[in-house]
Amino acid sequence: MAPPCYGDLGKKASDLHTKNFHPGMAKFEAKTKTQSGIKLATTGQSNIESGKTFGSMELTYSCSDYGLKYVEKWNTDNLLTIDTSIEDKILKGLKTSFITSYNVTTTKKKGTIKASYKHDYVNLSTDVDLDYAGPTIKGSAVCGYKGWLAGYQVALNASQNKLTANNLTLGYDAGNHVFNAAVNNGSDFGGSYYHKLSSSIEGGLQVGWSSATNSSQASLAAKYSLSPDTSMKVKGAMNGEVGLSLQQKVADCLTLTLSSVLDAKNFFAGGHRVGMCLDFEQ
């Protein structure tokens, strides 16, 4: 089994802290699939405090015989994005993509070429942003052996001949135990730990420290699955924020998530945020 891509290192701990939390937002997500295999997805959200709304639509068509996948997205910022990719046809494990975007309001255009290759012990990726201001070249590599993981990520602004990212991550993934430590740009240090104690209980820790600002952060999160249809989450951060989340499967195709983030340091001063998400999938 191939190791994860660089962006997914530490994902299990990160999901415990972020997934199913929608503070200050009311969201609706709907996914469906036609008989011809075309997938349709739509998302709508509203900021409870400001009232600002945002929506998006996505259409996905896959042709497995040719390894072809076509994804078209549009959102209320009038940004149209088309992603065309071919996977496992030129070479097994190789995926190539060409992404174009066009903002109808500003007429700004952008293109990105991506390529990734994964094998039993390695996961490589590279992409080039074709921007009028100058291309940005990004690359990453993750090697894995018997649970041990080592990853490196770099980004180069070609027009300025300057590195914009220089990141290194080391980790160990034993399935129920996942540990990661990272150094970003030589100044930001971070780590995460994920532990699945049982089929119904999961826990995670995230820590970080910046030598540039001498600031640190830490947070704990836990998930308890009461049943296959009901789960709860709680998290606490060093800055005094406490998050709570309850997810309930109301019907076979409908899931309701309620969440809140409380300011424990100023509990009686207000400023607490609540959110909800209704997810429909058929």
- Overall shape: it is globular
| SS element count, helices | 1
Instruction: Report helical residue fraction.
Output: under 10%
Biggest sheet character = 19 strands, mixed, barrel
Task: Please characterize this protein's 3D structure.
Helix content is 3%, strand content 66%. The protein has 1 helix and 19 strands. The chain has a 19-stranded mixed beta barrel. Strand 7 (109-118) and strand 8 (122-130) form a beta hairpin. The radius of gyration is 21 Å and the shape is globular. The mean pLDDT is 93.
What is this entry, summarized?
3% of the residues lie in helices and 66% in strands. The protein has 282 residues and is mainly β.
State the main characteristics.
single chain; mainly beta; 19-stranded mixed beta barrel; 1 helix; 19 strands; 3% helix; globular
Map the helices and strands.
Layout: H1 11-18, E1 25-33, E2 39-47, E3 53-63, E4 68-75, E5 79-87, E6 94-103, E7 109-118, E8 122-130, E9 136-145, E10 148-157, E11 162-173, E12 177-184, E13 188-196, E14 201-210, E15 215-227, E16 230-237, E17 241-251, E18 254-263, E19 273-281
